[in-house]
Amino acid sequence: MESLFDLEDQPSLPAGFRHHHQWLASHDADRLLAALTATLAWAQRPLVIGGRHVMTPRLTYWVGPEPFRYSGGIEPVHEWTTELNEIRAQATRAAGVEFNSVLANLYRDGSDSMGAHRDDEPEFGARPVIASVNLGATRDFAIKHDITGERHVIALGHGDVLVMSGRSQLDWSHSVPKRARVTQPRINLTFRQWKSGN
Ligand SMILES: O=C(O)CCC(=O)C(=O)O
Ligand SMILES: [Mn+2]
User: Which are the contacts of 93, defined by CB distance < 8 A and separation ≥ 6?
Assistant: First the structure.
C-alpha cells in the first residue's frame, strides 16, 4: 500500500493536508458505513460554546486511553469495535503512525455540523498527525489559515481519507459547515495519537 505521506504533492492544498480519494474500496466503504452506523453507541454530548450550553450538532463516539475533554464537554471512553480496529490497522499501516484513539462523528444530514476549531489539545502532541476517514455523504471540509485568512474547501467523499500533519493544527482551523442540500448521513473517523496516560 502506498504510504499516505509519500504520494505526490497536491499543489492545490497547503502543506500538512493530503486528500486521498477512495482510499477504501467502495464495497469496504459500504460495509463499514452500514456496520458503524448500526453498532456504535452514538450519542449527543453537552458542550459549552461561548458561555452557552449546547448539545453537539452531531452524534459522537470516542475511543482512547482516557476521556477526551474539548469545548467544555467530555467524551467518555468506549470500546474498539471490529470495524474501528480494521480501519485503524489500515490507517496505521498506511501512515506509519500508531493510532491509539479515534473520534467518530455521525452527521445525520446537512443540518449537522462541526464548528471551526483546531485539534491542538496537548494530549495530541506538538504536531498532531490525524487520519480522517470518510464514509457516506460527501461533505465540505473548510480550512482557514488563522493569520493570512487563506481558505480552502475540500469535498470529502465516501472512502476518502484526509491526512493532517505538520503545522495543520497550529496554523489552520477547520470546520464542517451545515449544507442544506445534503440529505444523507455521513460518518467521519479522526484517528489520532493520544500521547499521555496509557
Ligand atoms: O467531520 C470531519 O470531517 C471533521 C471532524 C473533526 O474535525 C474532528 O473530529 O475533530
Ligand atoms: Mn477536528
Answer: 1
**Predicted local confidence at residue 154, as pLDDT:** 96
Distance CA 117, CA 71 (A): 9
Taking CA atoms only, the protein residue closest to ligand 1 atom 1 is 188
Residue 180 neighbours by CB under 8 Å, 6+ apart: 110, 111
Average pLDDT, the chain: 94
Query: What pLDDT is stored for residue 10 in this prediction?
Result: 64
CA gap 63, 40 in Å, rounded: 11
CATH fit for domain 17-192, picks 3.40.50.10860, 2.10.25.10, 3.30.420.40, 2.60.120.590: 2.60.120.590
Which atom of ligand 1 lies closest to the CA of 162?
Answer: 3
